Amino acid sequence: MMETIPFLLFLAIVFFVVFFIRVSRETIAKHTDWTSQDVPPRSEDTVEKPPLSKKVVQGSAYVVDGDTITIRKTQVRLFGIDAPELDHPFGRNAKSALITLCKGDTVRAEIIAQDSHGRAVARCYLKDGRDLSAEMVKLGLAIDWPKFSDGKYRSLEVPGARRKLWLADARQKGRMHVWEQYNAQKNTRNDPR
């Protein structure tokens, strides 16, 4: 009987140590955003891979306008571009083009920030790997926004795109009085008096 007491004591200590380690790990995981995927890549890993800690939303996209979509209840602003508002010239064309691009496809949004309107800003890709921002610029229905993209999409702009999308260009240059004038003229034309 005396021989089994040290053995049982040893088992009890091992059990408590294992239990304590497991509970500690679960508590740490619960109170931090860290996962095993958050460990930085080793030097032998390719540098081209996006960080695994990015938040990714994937699914069918509901198109709000030419540069905003909703995926799984997350409103997403396309990274680095500016498309016309719905009530501006070419605004409905931009929305229609984005609908055509997204229709029947899965969109992958890699969220990188949040804008001043509370929307997620994301690099968005179709299943075949095409960048939605690049596609909208190539269609001439959005323009590069260098303040946010560092000019990534500027070379893709079609000739005359900035003249065509003059209200988006004015916004980028901080000339909001141009918007106010446009809206005032539009409201005057729509006035039923």
Description:
- The protein has 193 residues and is of the alpha+beta class.
- Helix content is 40%, strand content 20%.
- It has 7 helices and 8 strands.
- Strands 1-6-7-4-3-2 form a 6-stranded mixed beta sheet.
- The chain is elongated.
- The protein starts with a helix and ends with a helix.
Number of strands: 8
Major sheet: order of its strands?
A: 1-6-7-4-3-2
Mean pLDDT over the full residue set: 81
| Rough outline | elongated
Name the poorly predicted regions.
28-52
Intertermini distance: 105 Å
- Approximately what portion of the residues adopt beta-strand conformation? 15-25%
Radius of gyration from the CA trace?
26 Å
Largest sheet: 6 strands, mixed
Structural class: alpha+beta
Q: How helical, in percent, are the residues?
A: 25-40%
**Element-level helix/strand string:** HEEEEEHEEHEHHHH
Number of contiguous helices: 7
Give short descriptive properties of this protein.
20% strand, alpha+beta, elongated, two-stranded antiparallel ribbon, 193 residues, 6-stranded mixed β-sheet
List the helices and strands and how they pair.
Blueprint: H1 4-31, E1 55-59, E2 61-65, E3 68-71, E4 74-78, E5 81-82, H2 91-102, E6 107-114, E7 120-126, H3 132-138, E8 143-144, H4 146-149, H5 161-164, H6 166-172, H7 176-190
Parallel strand pairs: 4-7
Antiparallel strand pairs: 1-6, 2-3, 3-4, 5-8, 6-7
Q: What is shown here, in short?
A:
The chain is of the alpha+beta class and 193 residues long. The chain is built from seven helices and eight strands; from the N terminus they run H-E-E-E-E-E-H-E-E-H-E-H-H-H-H. A six-stranded mixed sheet has the order 1-6-7-4-3-2.
